[in-house]
Amino acid sequence: MLNYITRRVIGTIPVIILISLLVFMLVQAAPGDPADLLLSDEATPEDIASARERWGLNQPVYVQYWKFLVAALQGDLGTSFRYADPVLLMIGDRLPATVELAVVAILIAVFIGVPLGVWAGARPNSWVDNVGSFFGFFGISMPSFWFGIMLILIVSGFLNLLPSAGRNTYGIADDPITGFYILDSLLHWNWKAVWDGISYIILPAIALGTNMLGILMRVTRSSVLEVMHDDFVRTARAKGLSEHKVLWRHAVRNALIPIITVVGLELGTLLSGSIIVETVFSWPGSGSLLIEALNSRDYPLITGTVLTYTFIFVIINLTIDILYAAIDPRIRFDK
What span, in angstroms and rounded, lies between the C-alpha atoms of 69 and 52? Predict the structure, then answer.
């Protein structure tokens, strides 16, 4: 196992470097000069030239990338052109909001999608299967940005049940501890702030997690439907076990590998795909920060944010691979 993890970690290094190179080159090739966009309209050509020199934009692209790579290997992602703050600190301030949103979205998808998929797979062509298939197709085909706008119009605008934008109400939150608003409120025993955080996160989490709910339901249904005809299921039934135990103790456990794979991949996708949902709901996460960086051609902030997403995605995939052996003892990575 240790050798496998070591090989995987070493193998991810070229991937991260290649992605950083591609992102750096694509950002450089995009139209627009950061100095022209960020300086005021009264800036003289000398001011623009001075800014370009200060930010290193007057150097060749390969020199800029080499300096960025060397600094990144030392834990320095540079300084934002627009905000003049360290990129790493800015991402650290915004990333907890994105992670919190992704975690709540994936919890919604798992707690609804997996049971629906299990029941649909255990009772094919029944009313449960029809209901599950409806939710599955609805989630897969529904664009998250359009669904988010509809939630705002109906739930917030028409019914006035939940807030439509932001992350918390001003003046309710206590001093942050971890950066996760709901968790910090629980640590402070501030139940008003806990409900405040939940009320703000429900709509964006539903909009973000609906697509994953549909995918997870369809994958779970197919996986359970496949294992329900295996020999070990027939043996469990022959022993006289109840259908509930056969389904949840035997069939579902052996169907977990593709389910966990989808959950891991979709969690990484939720983190990177939350950009649109964060924009729709004005959620102050790293996704909205990336949009701001793209609009102002903030090269260090763009590259640093994308690299952070890449690193998180690699860690999630490595964790999922390690979980395989814990779920299915037949899997041995050292062979």
Answer: 19
